[in-house]
From TrEMBL:
<keyword id="KW-0560">Oxidoreductase</keyword>
<protein>
    <submittedName>
        <fullName>Glutamate synthase subunit beta</fullName>
    </submittedName>
</protein>
<dbReference type="Pfam" id="PF14691">
    <property type="entry name" value="Fer4_20"/>
</dbReference>
<dbReference type="InterPro" id="IPR006005">
    <property type="entry name" value="Glut_synth_ssu1"/>
</dbReference>
<dbReference type="InterPro" id="IPR017896">
    <property type="entry name" value="4Fe4S_Fe-S-bd"/>
</dbReference>
<keyword id="KW-0314">Glutamate biosynthesis</keyword>
<feature type="domain" description="4Fe-4S ferredoxin-type">
    <location>
        <begin position="38"/>
        <end position="69"/>
    </location>
</feature>
<dbReference type="InterPro" id="IPR023753">
    <property type="entry name" value="FAD/NAD-binding_dom"/>
</dbReference>
<dbReference type="InterPro" id="IPR028261">
    <property type="entry name" value="DPD_II"/>
</dbReference>
<dbReference type="Pfam" id="PF07992">
    <property type="entry name" value="Pyr_redox_2"/>
</dbReference>
<comment type="pathway">
    <text>Amino-acid biosynthesis.</text>
</comment>
<dbReference type="InterPro" id="IPR036188">
    <property type="entry name" value="FAD/NAD-bd_sf"/>
</dbReference>
<keyword id="KW-0028">Amino-acid biosynthesis</keyword>
<dbReference type="InterPro" id="IPR009051">
    <property type="entry name" value="Helical_ferredxn"/>
</dbReference>
<dbReference type="InterPro" id="IPR051394">
    <property type="entry name" value="Glutamate_Synthase"/>
</dbReference>
Length: 495
């Protein structure tokens, strides 16, 4: 604990964002480049080095947060990097994309603003790359065992890296033309520039991990062939079966799923397209769904030059403080948060009819109406109460040339034939069934990440990847020294 009084003398200061008018004109990350390092050591001083650090329990990776906070406050960046990477394969991903349940569990957060744990994590990761603290770590010897990992999202990549470093020969199969899963084509560039992803892929290639892109297992490669070729198979395909909105007018042109829209915008940033076929330029856009995916659509539509953008959230507007009765510390509370995209929408006034920033809360979609050509032109909604029942005389219509459905995901996509060919048992909600060792009902086949857990956070995805790697290593060799931070049955802290 470098400064015993740091939490009393230093106020919370976060990584500043670039001015809205500037950042909406490009796709670069929203933060001011170079503005984090000058403030981060003092922010790390605010960590109290608690006797029982609940940030550990709030983070499924078990990140050693007080330890690397202390090292950062002393500007011992190499040691901080070692402690951070001991529990997290990709801290530059989580430092940018995770909603930071660790900060909700910070003891300081009982009566003060929490330590900026997420910013400290990001600063360590970026400094580690700048200083060369993250070289490839190829295994000293090979075990002769082979593993196929299906899916290259955070779960698949974490599992592959851990198994490669343990000495197994690992091949990652990805259906898209580039590695990264939703981090590649689902997360907008302004939230995480893809250079961070490319850097890790290069590291993994140097360590010996092999990648097979543009390959749909179950269609391009039969699942049984993969089982025969490899000693173990890890299914980490994610939960990509999106939820639908079965209301009148759904079949009109111009209504699309968020994950049809976001990948095209990312492909523009990759240089594959000059303009997205679903560009929001000049259109009145309505986003149905109040989560992070909806916010990603919001920021993307603003950058594409939409005429207006409104986001509908079926929940009532949360308060700015946690409800100690229903969501006491150290659980992750549902409070009003202003993401970078919402900040942009508020300042640019993209949604004149919205309650706050671009959001209409307690709003339920009733139907869509269109023109004579079958194109959507209006979205009709009604206000709902806490039981989601319509409130009388609250109906209204919004102009809508482009509607984006961001309603979450129900489980893994089954259309490729993978699960049917393997004969995998499923849970009632559509996720892959597995035992306490991440093993499915098919010998040698393991399941991890959103495909088995259900839609979750990136930090849980990485934890699943690390844990399933330990299970596979044990299956192949009889024992394992790889860390297993979580069990399949573990869940976030709730009341």
């Amino acid at each position: 604990m470098a400064d015993p009084k740091g939490f009393m003398t230093t106020p919370r200061q976060e990584w500043p964002r670039r001015p809205v008018e500037q950042r909406v004109r490009d796709w670069d990350e929203v933060y001011v480049p170079g503005a984090l390092l000058p403030i981060i050591s003092k922010q790390a001083d605010r960590c109290m080095d608690c006797g029982i650090p609940f940030c550990h329990h709030a983070c499924p990776l078990g990140n050693l947060i007080p330890e690397w906070n202390d090292l950062v406050s002393r500007e011992d960046w190499r040691s901080a990097s070692d402690r951070l990477h001991a529990t997290n394969n990709f801290p530059e991903f989580t430092g940018r994309l995770c909603p930071a349940p660790c900060e909700a569990g910070c003891v300081l957060a009982i009566n003060q603003p929490a330590v900026t744990i997420k910013n400290v994590e990001c600063a360590i990761a970026d400094r580690a790359w700048e200083e060369g603290f993250t070289p490839p770590r190829p295994p000293e010897r090979l075990t002769g065992k082979t593993v196929a990992v299906i899916g290259s999202g955070p779960t698949g990549l974490a599992a592959a890296q851990q198994l490669t470093r343990a000495g197994h020969t690992v091949a990652v199969y990805e259906k898209d033309d580039r590695i990264g899963g939703l981090m590649r084509y689902g997360i907008p560039e302004f939230k995480m520039e893809k250079r961070h992803l490319e850097r890790r892929i290069e590291q993994m290639l140097a360590e010996g991990t092999k990648f097979r892109t543009s390959t749909v297992v179950g269609r391009d490669v039969p699942a049984d062939e993969l089982r025969t070729r490899y000693d173990a198979v890890v299914i980490a395909t994610g939960a990509t079966a999106w939820r639908e909105l079965p209301v009148p007018g759904r079949s009109l042109n111009g209504i699309h799923q968020a994950m049809e829209y976001l990948p095209l915008a990312n492909r523009v940033c990759e240089g594959d397209l000059e303009v997205s076929p679903l560009s929001a330029a000049g259109k009145h856009v309505v986003i149905v769904g109040g989560g992070d995916t909806g916010a990603d659509c919001l920021g993307t539509a603003v950058r594409e030059g939409a005429a207006s953008v409104t986001q509908l959230d079926i929940y009532t507007q949360p308060g700015s403080e946690r409800d100690e009765d229903t969501e006491p510390w150290p659980t992750y509370p549902k409070i009003y948060r202003l993401s970078a995209a919402h900040e942009e929408a508020r300042e640019l006034r993209t949604a004149p009819a919205a309650d706050a920033d671009a959001r209409l809360f307690a709003a339920s979609t009733l139907r869509f109406t269109g023109d004579e050509r079958g194109n959507v032109r209006s979205l009709h909604l009604v206000e709902v109460d806490e039981q989601r029942l319509p409130v009388p005389d609250t109906g209204q219509s919004l102009p809508a040339d482009l509607v984006l459905l961001a309603l979450g995901f129900s489980g893994p996509d089954q259309e490729d034939g993978l699960m049917e060919q393997l004969g995998l048992a499923l849970q009632p909600r559509g996720t892959i069934a597995r035992d306490d060792g991440f093993a499915t009902n098919v010998p040698g086949v393991f399941a991890a990440g959103d495909a088995a857990r259900g839609q979750s956070l990136i930090v849980w995805a990485i934890a699943e990847g690390r844990a399933v790697a330990a299970a596979v290593d044990r299956y192949l060799t009889g024992s394992s020294r790889l860390p297993a931070p979580i069990r399949p049955t573990d869940r976030p802290m709730v009341v």
